[in-house]
Design a protein that fits this description.
Blueprint (H helix, E strand, L loop, with lengths): L4 H4 L12 E5 L5 E6 H5 L6 E9 L5 E6 L10 E2 L2 E3 L7 H13 L5 E13 L6 E12 L11 E7 L1 H10 L6 H16 L6
Parallel strand pairs: 3-8
Antiparallel strand pairs: 1-2, 3-6, 4-5, 4-9, 7-8
């Protein structure tokens, strides 16, 4: 897995894992503190900053990822290209680009802000809760994904029609439709009306 200065900070000099910290925010998205990642997702959940990325190929197909089976939260389900949490003090745009490279081995050829969305989604399978102030990004990808198997179980490029079929047949993350619907105006601007998004 690629290591960045930000992710290297998760291991202390003696080799012990240090807790991953998230940025807690208020309803307007203003930072009000930090919390350990797992504790922020325990019921009822604590509102924290997150990001979601939607990358498309030159044909207007969305790159989906299947979350790895080993993930503690929502393992094995399908979701958008990449999602995660900025480190405290890290800009959401920088975090989105960093995690896309770490998880999928690609750098977007274009990445644009697409607004924010706030939601509260319990995950019935894990019992965890997503209380998130989510920064949305849309962009283009030209290189084939080279996913980190510890993070990603599979990938697929899908059209809007193919996504509708896949969504009806397979499990998706609890937050997927919320972030997709919130990002649709920017997605349509990026891909054009003919792509059907």
């Amino acid at each position: 897995m690629p290591t960045t200065p930000a992710s290297a900070a998760d291991v202390s000099p003696n080799g012990a894992a240090e807790p991953i910290m998230l940025e807690l925010v208020d309803e307007s998205g203003t930072t009000i503190g930090t919390a350990e990642k797992l504790s922020a997702h325990l019921p009822p959940g604590r509102l924290h900053r997150a990001f979601s990325v939607f990358l498309f190929d030159s044909s207007g197909r969305l790159l989906l990822q299947q979350r790895a089976e080993g993930k503690y939260h929502s393992p094995g389900v399908w979701s958008n290209t990449c999602c995660g949490h900025p480190y405290p003090g890290e800009a959401p745009f920088a975090a989105a680009a960093r995690r896309t490279a770490e998880e999928l081995g690609v750098s977007p050829s274009l990445l644009c802000e697409a607004g924010t969305v706030r939601y509260n989604h319990p995950d019935p399978a894990s019992g965890l809760v997503e209380q998130e102030f989510n920064h949305l990004f849309v962009g283009l990808v030209q290189a084939p994904p080279q996913p980190d198997p510890e993070e990603v179980g599979g990938t697929a490029f899908v059209s809007a029609e193919e996504l509708a079929r896949l969504h009806a047949e397979r499990p998706f993350s609890a937050w997927f439709m919320t972030v997709l619907d919130a990002a649709r105006p920017a997605i349509r601007e990026l891909t054009g009306e003919s792509a059907g998004w």
